[in-house]
Amino acid sequence: MGPYSQTVAFSHYNNLSAQLPVDPATGRLVAGGVKEQAERCFKNIQEIIKSIGHEMSDVVRITIFLQDISDMHAVNAVYSAFFPDYVPTLTTVAVAALPMGALLQVEALLSNGEGTIPNAPQAGDLVKIASDSRNAPTSHLSTQSVAFSHYNNISAQLPIDPESGKLVAGGAREQAVQCLKNIRAILENIAVPFDDIVKVNIFLKNLSDIESVNEAYRAFFPDSAIARAVAYVPARTVVEATLPMDALVQIEAVVSHGDGTPPQAVEDRHGIVINAHNTDNAPRCPLSTQTVAFSHYNHLSAQLPLHPETDEMVAGGVKEQAAQCLNNIKAIVESIGHAMGDVVKVNVFLKNIADMDAVDEVYATFFPGGVPARRVVGVGALPRGAMIQIDAVVANAEGTPPKA
């Protein structure tokens, strides 16, 4: 159904392409409403997972993109049927448009206990650790944090006061502060420092609120003296979306987990270094690092179609903008000694979903084999008025070394 793989496994994770409610026999959207479409999305995920010898309980994160946020409750009922006991981390947002006019699209990240790297120590049968803190909002639909191998995935946090269960008072700045406080509480519960965050995804109801959110963000990053000394900030993506509870802000995070989850060989566990890197061959941003490597993955910040020398939007239409986004990603990937063939997951955000065919023409020149898993969504607005924004996850076979 497109220039991508259904799932790309590397090391201890499988990255699945976002699944549309498409009947694999016909290649068309299934008949019915959002309930029927949700069932088809999850069945597609289930079939992909079975095809690689895994189970739904190996899922560590689910992301649901809706056309209409009011459909969330109907979709949650379907979701619960596929996760009757264990629940993964969860993010739910509504976007402006989805491919094929679908009502929803569902994406999964899957643990891969056996690993994929040949001739290297693989723990095998790693334990998935799910945890909740009373100091952050809880939900029967999601686990706050699910750790597997050397990463923790955090459920998207709404600006909810955990004591009252209600949105905090104030505007986007106050809501961003509460989201980040909730993430901090979750990390404190599992004894992980705040500066171990490697990637942050910020969902805003109104992109125009970004400066207010950035004001709050700067108060949390960098967090420690060590991080301040090197001006460390995570990789970051900012997206406009409609959010549950009519919130103005929702934030999710991916966190490094140096100790790993057992069983981990002692020599593979302790003090793995976070490698943050920027290159002058791609646009720089003081609030994000272009790529943050930890263990066997690099997480890249979302790239806008900005020329790195001028920091201005490139001339032309969506094809030219898509090419610039991918050229920026290529420059970042090559600056850390990797190649585009190491990309395992691509996330494409479009101002106009109808531009997808034009973008695919450009995309195919960067990924001629169509190998990475992929997600495409249409959004109401992008930073700097861009037509497209792209981020990526890159395999890091060499890993990041333990501290000397």
UniProtKB/TrEMBL annotation:
Family in the record: Belongs to the RutC family.
Pfam families reported for this sequence: Ribonuc_L-PSP
Protein name: Endoribonuclease L-PSP
InterPro entries: RutC-like_sf, YjgF/YER057c/UK114
Coiled coil, from the record: none
CDD domains: YjgF_YER057c_UK114_family (cd00448)
Signal peptide limits: none
